[in-house]
Amino acid sequence: MRKIHFCFLSILCLIIILSIFISYTLLEFIKSDTMVISSQFNVTAGGIAIFELPEVNENDRVYFVFNTSSRIKVEQNSMLIQLPYDIESRPFEFEDWIICQQRLCFIVNSSSNSAIRFKFLDPENPYYIKFPGEKLNYTLFNLNRTYDNYLGIHIETITTRTYMAPALWLIYPYHKNAEPNFQVNGSLRLMKGDISYIHFILVTGDKNFFAYNLISNKNKKMGETINFYVNAHNKTINGQTLSEKFEKQLSYLTLAIGLNATKLNNETISAEVAIGTIQIKNGNSITKIIPKVSDAYQVSYSLYIFHKFHATPIYEISVLTLIFLVIAAGIMLARITGFKIELRTILKPLVTTEAISDPRPKTYLARLFHKPRYDQLVELLLQFVGRKISVLIDVGCGRGALYEFLKKNGINTEFYIGCDIDKETLKEAGNIERVLCDVQHLPFKKNAGEVIICSEVLEHTANPNLGFSELLNASQRWIFITFPEERLKNALGFRYFEHISEPNAKEFKNLAEKKEFRLIKINKKYFIFPPSVFDKLGLSYTAFYRLPVELFFQGFSEIFRPFAMMKTVILVFLKNGKKC
Amino acid sequence: MASLNRFVKAELIYLPTLMLILNLLGFCPFQGFDDIFLKRTGLLPFIDLRPGYPPLGKLPYYFFSVSLSQSMYAFFTFIFNACAMFVFGIAVYLCISKINPKKAFILTFTILMMPTVIYFNLIHSHADSLALTSIALILYFIQNPVLCGVICGIGALVKYYPAILLIPLLIYYKKIKEKIMLLYCFISTLLLLSLPFLLSDPLMYISSVESHLMRGPSESIFSIIDGYYGHTGFLHPTFDATIYAWQFAALYNPSHDDHFRYKWNLPFLPYVSIMLQIFSIVVTSWAARKTGNPKKSIQLISLGLFSYFAFSTFYNPLVHFPQVFFLALATLSWSTNKQILILATFEIINLFHSLVWFSPFFSTVGVLLPLTFTVTFRTILYGLIFLNFAKRGEV
């Protein structure tokens, strides 16, 4: 016991050392796993900015966060995999407003350095542009000549029959708490085109929408200036009370421009709107959204390089050793504390069987395990011997189930001898010649029986080879033997206590060849686990359960043959010089 | 065993019928947004990306999603979910029948017939029923620390919450060697089953847990008090999940809007919630230890788990369906009628809660008022349940 204690403590020390080493490796990596570079560059609308990526490792993640409202197109680079913005291809996601607008994300798939080419598609303007439906073409421009301090937006699209009218949203992020004097006022003009509506939308708190219709199909007048005024104090827009509860927490100010979608398919529709200065008064601060478009502008950005962990061979060996030591420590811990792995003791009652190999009772054990063996024996007898047998010796006949089976399948025996070691079961064996004997010492003369059948008996004997030799002596022509091959089940600790040996087909073959017999057929039936489990679980063998259980069990047993816990081996021997 | 036979038979009739009805009504499983993302990008979960759930609960759906078409995904997920629900039913039945065999049939079927349980187990691509099966089995084998440790480890890898059971079990077991074996079996099961991920990228794997803990409140009394009443904002990271949780934290600041990276208006609230959760679990587990009666202990531990969910800052009528199982177990000494009444009330509140989001009526009225009403009503129900336990002297 002292030795075990010592070993356990040594293993525990090793586990601690390895854990410290693994943790240290990971912590060292975490310390330098992020690199941030912030800078700025000048761009022009429609122009390209070339960016030299600093040295990165394979599979590192690179994030660009730009401070611009312009759309950015990345010219594909073989070393970068650009991750999609819109994860579900949903055209619009309120949740992703901030995230998607300015963020570009890549995974580096090669360690070679290369330049990235960003194309800035739009001029700089105060609004982020989103589409609640299909994407539209748009251009932004200054309208200083016609109207002082107005931002022009030209929208154009080809109509398609979708349920949603084509629309464009101009969004201004405003993440502040509304003070009691919160006010917004602004103006806009409808210049030309097929406008269906223009809404002013205030998004507050948990994405509550306070929408007000500024222009609709009915009241639209080209060139007229429309002023709007929001007063949060009395919860009104242009004097009209909002129906919903106004929340203190503000998120976005939005102008939604909807196009007229009544036209037929594939027709071009366009519109032009001029947006004036919007002023937000909140507490003491006044924010002005200046309606200005700049073709040449400065973009500030942050580049994040996130390194990905690469497992080194030393790390991998350490983890594997740690796992191995944890298992070893568990085994020792079980011995020290006196705990047994009780899983086996819980499962064992499920797989153990009563020592009755009768295919007749209506149980899953009988019908799924024993019956297939009897069926195969009948099939093989019909194939090799025929329907008439002069003397058949059934060694280990039990209650004579095989006799009934053969009779039922039209195999007639002139003389059927049943042998068994158990007196009580032999009494129930029915109308056959009964002999109380042991397979290892058969009381028959040489060549006594034309056919000898010994099914699921030899594994119950201490020396199966001795029993088989007796069968060889007693047989004049044919020997049919079956036995279980349950090495996997035994290795898992579920050995049936009555199976005291493991018969071996190879040894039987060698033995038979010595005594002038030859092996002419070998069949195997696979069982993924003992079907007695179904009986133990309390499932009755009724028509309701039978079909699904049999399908499940036999399907699994066939698919997972290499993992079958047990097999039934059927061997057919014929004496040399005799014909089938 | 005969009654289990009867139950299995009833379940084998009930589940296919239910599946048929759901199919006729047009309900079928759909791919999760993160699975779609993984399919498109070819990234591997837990190695290239941190999903929101642990591997055993996530990978079956991931494999269906990656290897099958949309319709075949729906079919196989439906079958898989039905099998999981079948196993879940048996585990719940066994667990209840251990305490009160007479009530097992009716109570298990009451749980299995609840709309939220049906919807979440059969339609969603979550393996909650398997996680709850593990909890039911732990309670069933409560006297065996080795088995409980192993099942708890497996359960924690299906969904994180079965790991909570470690606390009551550690308190419940009196002998030190039982506690050691429980912990050892739990840790070694976790390590062994996580080995492929620990070898390839342990940080991404650990990060999955961390990102889960960073999530904010939702639709609970705590979130209402804090002024955040939805499961809204930036919900779950997907393309942002390709980096570790702490790297993501460097990139994205918490806000008052986002469920995933939530900034509390009242920062003490999450601590209140955690304190209440720990307190309830410790008190009930200590009471379970004192009783010495395994059946009574199971009831008390179930009450602790029920309280854990009740005091959570996160609430979702679908995700919180395990509560009905814990409530059914905890109230087994009550009369059947009273039990079914309380379970039904609980379910009605949950249904009303779901309607707040999905009914067109509430979309015009606004969700705040009905949601506050639902959450308050459920909190009152919690209060009544706890009061009843206190009155009966069961804690």
Walk me through this protein's architecture:
The complex is a heterodimer of chains A (580) and B (395). By secondary structure, chain A is of the alpha+beta class. Helix content of chain A is 26%, strand content 36%. In chain A, helix 1 packs antiparallel against helix 3 and helix 8 runs parallel beside helix 10 (505-514). Chain A starts with a helix and ends in a 5-residue tail after the last strand. Residues 84-102 of chain A have low confidence and may be disordered. Chain B has one domain (2-196, 268-392). Chain B starts with a helix and ends with a helix. The chains are: A alpha+beta (580), B mainly alpha (395). At the A-B interface, helix 1, strand 3, helix 3, helix 4 and helix 12 of A face helix 1, helix 2, helix 8, helix 10 and helix 11 of B.
Q: Specify which chain pair forms the largest interface.
A: A-B, 61 and 61 residues
Tell me the count of domains of chain B: 1
Mean pLDDT of chain B: 86
Measured distance between first and last alpha carbons of chain A: 64 Å
Q: Briefly note the CATH topology name of the largest domain in chain A.
A: Rossmann fold
Shape field of chain B = globular
Share in helix of chain A: 25-40%
- The gyration radius over C-alpha positions of chain A equals 43 Å
Per DSSP E runs of 2 or more residues, the count of β-strands of chain B stands at: 0
DSSP summary: helix tally of chain B: 20
> What is the number of strand segments of chain A?
29
Strand content of chain B: under 5%
